[in-house]
Design a protein that fits this description.
Layout (H helix, E strand, L loop, with lengths): L1 E8 L6 H14 L3 E6 L13 H12 L5 E3 L2 H5 L5 H11 L3 E8 H6 L6 H5 L3 E5 L12 E4 L8 H9 L10 H9 L6
Parallel strand pairs: 1-2, 1-4, 2-3, 4-5, 5-6
Helix pairs in contact: 2-8
């Protein structure tokens, strides 16, 4: 059975932290691929700052250079709020030959008790947790911890930098930076 990592998020914008997490977990867990699944409307956050199509394009540009990374638009296609349980049930039905590993940062590990039907979710997929600055991986849920290099960046921080015209070189992949500039995203 092929092992597939799932990295969900808003990816507004995608950055090297996302890519590093995906690659380190892929290698540590022997995953065949990591699927990036951008959400249409995150259940635990405010709306994205860019459109779904812009976020998909940025994510494709960010992941194109890695043959083990794929962009899956299942949540964008459904529109509205997407819950991980719904997404994973559909993926398990569509791909019965794959074993899924949902990758989350320590900030989301702390938030797990608030997830929609979290106990049911844990009965159908495996979770992988990675450390994030300012958060612990303490939880009552069975999570496999993968140790990765710590990079303390977030999309929120990068949007602020972009609005203030601060350089995001070496933090956001060059093709994504070009796309942001060409399309005047985030106040550029």
């Amino acid at each position: 059975m092929e092992r597939i990592g799932i990295l969900g998020g808003t990816f507004d914008p995608p950055h090297l932290g996302h890519l590093l997490v995906a690659e380190e977990v892929r290698l540590a867990m022997g995953l065949k691929e990591v699927w990036f699944i951008p959400t249409y409307t995150p259940p635990h956050k405010n709306a994205a700052k860019t459109t779904a199509s812009e976020r998909i394009k940025m994510l494709q540009l960010a992941t194109n250079s890695n043959p083990f990374f794929k962009v899956n638009t299942i949540e964008i296609e459904r529109t509205g709020k997407s819950y991980t349980l719904d997404t994973m049930e559909i993926l398990k039905e569509q791909y019965p030959d794959k074993e899924f590993y949902f990758i989350i940062g320590a900030d989301m590990v702390e938030y797990l008790p608030n997830w929609y039907k979290v106990d049911e979710l844990f009965s159908i997929i495996n979770f992988i947790g990675v450390k994030r600055s300012g958060y612990e991986l303490n939880t009552r849920y069975p999570i496999t911890e993968v140790d990765i290099p710590m990079i303390d960046i977030s999309s929120t921080m990068l949007r602020k930098w972009l609005r203030s015209k601060r350089s995001v070189n070496y933090i956001i992949p060059d093709p994504v930076v070009s796309y942001i500039k060409e399309n005047h995203l985030y106040g550029n």
